[in-house]
Amino acid sequence: xxxxxxxRKSFEEVEVLKGINTSFDTGKxxxxxxxxxxxxxxxxxxxxxxxxxxxxxxxxxxxxIMKMSPEEKQTLRSEIxxxxxxxxxxxxxxxxxxxxxxxxxxxxxxxxEKKRKVLExxxxxxxxxxxxxxxxxxSGGMQKRVAIARAIVNNPKYLFxxxxxxxxxxxxxxxxDDLLLEITKEYNTTTIINTHDMNSVMxxxxxxxxxxxxxxxxEGDKDILATAKNKxxxxxxxxxxxxxxxRDFMLENNQTSLINDKPExxxxxxxxxxxxx
Length: 277
Ligand SMILES: Nc1ncnc2c1ncn2[C@@H]1O[C@H](COP(=O)(O)OP(=O)(O)OP(=O)(O)O)[C@@H](O)[C@H]1O
Known about the structure:
The protein is α/β, with parallel strands linked by helices. It has a domain at 2-79 and 156-222: P-loop containing nucleotide triphosphate hydrolases (Rossmann fold, 3-Layer(aba) Sandwich). It has eleven helices and ten strands. Helix 3 (95-106) crosses helix 4, helix 3 runs parallel beside helix 5 and helix 5 runs parallel beside helix 6. The model is unreliable at 257-266 and 268-277 (pLDDT under 50). It binds adenosine-5'-triphosphate (ATP). Adenosine-5'-triphosphate is lined by residues 11, 16, 34, 36-42.
């Protein structure tokens, strides 16, 4: 579990994160959504301590990253898997070598043991025929799967992904979403994903955190999204005509699992926002 308390981040005079309080459960897919510039990447990088927060605390299963010694931070890093935008693979390394990288960095495992783990995750993400290829020789979707395999090879407790579906077609995006959901359950990771993909939000969003202008505007799960009353959230999530019609249909028919009987129990509304009639 990751708990975030009063997290603030400023760049010089500009405050980008304005006191965020939230938590992300173990074994769940947590999605961060929000318009461009709302602070999603700064939030993710602050959690990872790539950016040092201006104030607040971030607890990884009770351990405050801001109070950790360099050694403790190094241990925490070995427990974190990351999938960054563009997959961030090493062009000069084969698929197998890319995936082995965290094991080379963080473990003293023997060559044979590393090989065993690498082949295991290659099988897990279905890349058996690509292990000797270079990133430039495989498709974008396969590159994402390599990045996911690399992120999980060292059995992480925490999995961070920054727009894992960017640049992928809808079918391949679904494959990646399904894989991330399955891996979250199998490895029992606390998974946090920045996404612009509303299909991901509707299908794998076990928790959704909606950021707006650096504040937490709303949080809840995919099943209460259709009945959420936060106007900014609705305008953002249902900005596409297709999703708007889907929501109208769901509300009219009241017959989908996306609708929860008691949305108020699970969602936090910003009291400054007038309720929609
Ligand atoms: N290193 C930095 N120095 C100064 N300002 C920054 C820095 N990184 C981000 N910002 C500012 O913080 C704000 C939030 O940026 P961020 O990249 O987190 O947005 P985002 O929600 O991830 O957007 P997108 O969806 O387009 O990736 C922006 O106004 C951006 O200019």
